[in-house]
Amino acid sequence: MAGNSGHTIDTLLLTFDDVAILPGLSTVEPHDVELSSRVSRSIFVSTPLVSSPMDTVTEWRMAAALARLGAVGVIHRNMPREEQARHVSMVKSVSPSPWSEVPRIRLPDGLENYSLILEELDAGAAVVFGDDGIKGYLVLERPDAQLWLEKARYLSLYLTRIRPFPTIDGEGRLVVGAAVSPFDLDRARLLEKSGADFLVIDVAHLHNRNALSSLSRLVKEVSIDVVAGNLGTREGVLDTLARAEEVAGLRMGISSGSICSTGEVAGAAVPTLTAVMNAVLALEELGLAGRIPIIADGGVRNAGDAAKAIIAGASAVMGGRLFAGADESPGPRIRVGDKLYKPYRGMASRGAMERRFAVDRYSRQAKAVEEGVEGLVPYTGPVVKTLYELAEGLKAALGYAGAQDVTSAWKAKLARVTPTGSREIRPHDILLG
Ligand SMILES: NC(=O)c1ccc[n+]([C@@H]2O[C@H](COP(=O)([O-])OP(=O)(O)OC[C@H]3O[C@@H](n4cnc5c(N)ncnc54)[C@H](O)[C@@H]3O)[C@@H](O)[C@H]2O)c1
Asked: GO MF terms on file (predicted)?
């Protein structure tokens, strides 16, 4: 296609809704699909989901909850480095057992005892086990009883159907990631010292000469995995690996997040699906395909999008909005009418930028324009509910693709969908209840 200045435009930026998964011969039932994967060279997860380093998404509570359930979280950097290090230490010090959030108790003891145990644990519910599995739920009479019951139910479902392993380090402590700017070497060192298992470079446009030379220094200074991002193009990945071959993961996607306005205010974007495909092209060119995990970051709305990202070549999927409405995200529940919401904002929104420059005296303002919005997302309950729905959906999707696990999903096929096809393949012509 010829642009009006005479140059040609030959790049197509495909996004999740532009493609569908081509069904393939399936040799396993969805229930037996294996979701284990990596988020970086040495960080293994049993559920390929990562929470985004955003100040309305990931602090220690979210990171601990996700790691207990086989996924992982990345603590945001919108706070002084000492405070971020404390969040990392908290995750490393809490119990790795998923049952530490909803206790598991056995029948048959006096009910009075159970109530006492729960009150002591400050838990509103427990899953009651007998010899042959779950017998039911014990819920204390308190105002938040329904919330506890929901959490207990989803926890039982998730643990029995998805069968995750907690994401733990060699010493049995929960694994946690932490975000850094490539320019903040002191923060990177402190986070490593505090026990962070991996670092995630957290800038909008890593494909910048200054950012890449800082990254090149940073990866040599720390011995934990460093995930580089954000990147969108094949050239960006090639230049990053040319400057920092030690990089242990790639965070791909520019401007796809629901709160991101980069594509609008700066006109620049590489939708996550295309960004992942570009990373695969670069890694293939370098003979590194499958060796450096790719994290798909931005715009993933459901398990279908997550599966498309994985089939395109991602090892793991990062979620912001997916997790922002959960109990475990920072921020209060806010009632609007008869519905509950939680705050959610882009890390380049006005409020997030102001906070960053107020609390982190080492951060420097690269640009004045805001590239994100602030708002509310529906409250979604305990994060285990979201994980359960995503993991079940991913298993179903990989089943259609004929893939028994994440690496075999990379050989599955995506196909272009026309706009009319795109309308037809979602619910239509019905008043949705
Ligand atoms: N994933 C996305 O699409 C996206 C888009 C915008 C912002 N963000 C998030 O917002 C936060 C702030 O990002 P930030 O990069 O502004 O942080 P920042 O202010 O710390 O900037 C870091 C560095 O990124 C580079 N950079 C950023 N914008 C650039 C541009 N337009 N041109 C050239 N180089 C540029 C520069 O090297 C800059 O010094 C981060 O958490 C980031 O992940 C994400």
From this structure: IMP dehydrogenase activity
Domain finish residue from 161, 195, 215: 161
Q: Is the CB of 367 under 6 A from ligand 1?
A: yes
Do 148 and 177 fall into the same domain?
no
- pLDDT single digits (tens) 7-47: 788 889 999 999 999 999 998 899 999 999 999 999 999 99
In a domain, 167, yes or no: no
Nearest residue to 316 (alpha-carbon basis) of 51, 77, 58: 51
Ligand 1 geometric centre to CA of 132 (Å): 53
260 is catalytic: yes
Residues 221 and 345 in one domain: yes
Position 352 confidence tier, pLDDT thresholds 50, 70, 90: very high
Please state at what angle helix 383-401 crosses helix 145-161, rounded to 10 degrees: 30
Structure token digits, residue 187: 């923060």
Count of residues in the chain: 433
Domain boundary among 139, 161, 183: 161
Is 426 a known active-site residue?
A: no
**Residue 389 domain boundaries:** 16-82+172-424
Would you say the CB of residue 371 lies under 6 angstroms from ligand 1?
Answer: yes
Position in ligand 1 atom list of the atom nearest CA 365: 19
The total number of structural domains in the chain stands at 2
Any idea of the CA torsion for 317, 174, 383, 311, to the nearest 10 degrees? 20
Residues 78 and 103 in one domain: no
In the reported structure, the alpha carbon of residue 211 is separated from the centroid of ligand 1 by a whole-number distance in angstroms of 10
Distance set, CA 292 to CA 15, 181, 225, 387 (Å): 23, 20, 11, 25
Residue linked to tokens 């086990």: 129
Residue 379 falls inside a structural domain: yes
202 is in an annotated binding site: yes
pTM of the model: 0.95
Judge whether 429 lies within some domain: no
Mean pLDDT of 389-399: 97
Phi, psi at residue 8, to the nearest 5°? -100, 150
Cβ of 210 closer than 6 Å to ligand 1, yes or no, is yes
Domain assignment of residue 87, yes or no:
no
CATH code of 192's domain = 3.20.20.70
Q: What mean pLDDT is predicted for residues 116-138?
A: 79
Question: Does the structure show a pLDDT above 90 at 389?
Answer: yes
Shared domain for 128 and 248, answered yes or no, is: no
Yes or no: say if 327 and 382 are a contact pair by the CB < 8 Å rule. Answer: yes
